[in-house]
Structure formats: structure tokens, C-alpha cells
Design a protein that fits this description.
single chain; 4-stranded antiparallel β-sheet; about 220 residues; Rossmann fold; 10 strands; 6-stranded mixed β-sheet; about 30% helix; alpha/beta; binds adenosine-5'-diphosphate
Length: about 220
């Protein structure tokens, strides 16, 4: 397996609490990995370390062989914008912007003009079943449609890795199923790896592999399941 993203010996403490206690995980090219475990086990902390949102106290994170954790905040922020995509539980779309401008936002933050960015993102709507919804604001979309807009926004910069934190947490079972189907297909199709944090086995089933976290440690070492 060619590892795209690796976390090695990751440790993160919050005061006396140890959120991560030496986690090693490698994510392959276009591989989808679910991170599962009970509440408080360290799943979100692991995702945040891998995504360069927080720095671990010990251990290393690399993307395509380059250290992520040693970069300063500005460079990590630039890396997150250009190489990573994010899908959150509630989509976190900007309510005042139409769907197409929400999807175009990562391109505009990267310096593309609004007109060119909106033009470039139109091609993402049909494959995600969003044709005709380009001008709708998030409040005029169903929960499932909003998550599909969030998936388009996560992929529009052609990231190496998409991180999803409970992406179906606010959806009913059928819509959650459809959302995971699209998320795993779209990431694979775009050659992006996928890291999904979830407590839901139905969500994890869509991934190639599951890493189980308990008390800040992995139950099943990466690559042996
Ligand atoms: P999970 O995502 O599995 O619910 P988290 O990674 O959020 O778990 O949390 C792991 C542990 O670290 C928990 O004990 C939690 O209370 C603690 N923790 C997480 N983030 C913080 C923080 N910002 N400040 C203090 N403690 C935190």
C-alpha cells in the first residue's frame, strides 16, 4: 500500500487527560478508513491531528512523505485549504450563499475569481444528483442535499484526503446510506483518500477498513484487519 497520510505514535494530552496515547495509522491512496469508538475515546482528536488542525504533543503526521505536524499554523492552514477536504455533521454551509457559491468558496479562497470559480464548480452538481439546485440557499435544501453540496465543496480543490466527522449524524438512515454511497464513490473516483469518524457501524461498512479507538489507542493496528 502506498501511504498518502500517516500518523505515527500520536500522543495528545489535555491537562491530566490523555486523548491520544500513541496511535499509528497509515491511509493508502484512495483508501477509505473509518475511525470508530465510543464517545470520548479520541476519534475527533485523531482526525484533528491527521488533518493538521491541532498539533500532537508527540509523534509525526506526514502527507505524501512531508511532515505536517511541524509546520506553523499558517502553512498548516494553507495545506488544509489546498490538500484536504472536510465534511462535517451539519455540512456547515454558509447560509447566505447559494449552493454553487458554497462549493466555489474553497477555490475563491485559493485566489480564483468568483465568476471563474462558480463556472468551474457547475460540473460537480450532476454527478452528485444536484442538478437544478445550484442557486438554492442551504435553507432551501434537504439535509441530504446539503450534505451532497458539502461533499462537492470538499472535493472541488481535488484534495489528497477528505476528512468526514459523523457525516450522516444529522440524517435519517436511508439518506445517510445514500450520502455514504456518494461520499465513498466520489472520493474514490477523484483518487482522494477518505477518513471518516463515526460511531455508526452502518457508516463504517462503506469504508475499506475500520480502525477502532479505545481510550486513545487503536484496538486493531492499521493494516492487519
Ligand atoms: P471522541 O471524538 O471519540 O468523542 P475526543 O477526541 O473528542 O473523543 O476526546 C478524547 C478525550 O479528550 C476526551 O476525554 C475529551 O474530554 C478530551 N478532550 C478532547 N478535546 C479536548 C479539549 N479541547 N480540551 C480538553 N479535553 C479535550
Amino acid at each position: 500500500m502506498i501511504a498518502i497520510l500517516t500518523g505515527t505514535g500520536l500522543v495528545k494530552r489535555y491537562g491530566p487527560a490523555t486523548a491520544l496515547d500513541g496511535v499509528t495509522l497509515a491511509v493508502g491512496r484512495a483508501e477509505a478508513v473509518a475511525i470508530m469508538g465510543p464517545s470520548g475515546s479520541g476519534k475527533s482528536t485523531l482526525l484533528h491531528c491527521l488533518a493538521g488542525i491541532i498539533k500532537p504533543d508527540a509523534g509525526e503526521v506526514t502527507l505524501l512523505g512531508q511532515r505536517v505536524d511541524t509546520l506553523g499554523e499558517r502553512r498548516r492552514s494553507a495545506l488544509r485549504r489546498s490538500r484536504f477536504g472536510f465534511v462535517f455533521q451539519f455540512g456547515q454551509l454558509l447560509p447566505e450563499l447559494p449552493a454553487e457559491e458554497n462549493v466555489a468558496l474553497p477555490l475563491m479562497l485559493g485566489g480564483t475569481s468568483r465568476a471563474r470559480a462558480v463556472d468551474a464548480v457547475r460540473a460537480w452538481f450532476a454527478p452528485l444528483g444536484l442538478t437544478g439546485l445550484e442557486r438554492r440557499r442551504p435553507g432551501e435544501l434537504s439535509g441530504g442535499q446539503a450534505q451532497r453540496v458539502a461533499i462537492a465543496r470538499a472535493l472541488v480543490t481535488r484534495p489528497a484526503v477528505v476528512f468526514a466527522d459523523e457525516p450522516t449524524g444529522a440524517l435519517d438512515q436511508k439518506t445517510g446510506h445514500d450520502t455514504m454511497n456518494l461520499l465513498t464513490q466520489a472520493t474514490r473516483h477523484n483518487d482522494a483518500s477518505l477518513v471518516v469518524v463515526t460511531h455508526d457501524p452502518d457508516v463504517a461498512r462503506w469504508c475499506d477498513r475500520t480502525a477502532e479507538v479505545r481510550d486513545g489507542r487503536l484496538l486493531v493496528p492499521a493494516g492487519t484487519s
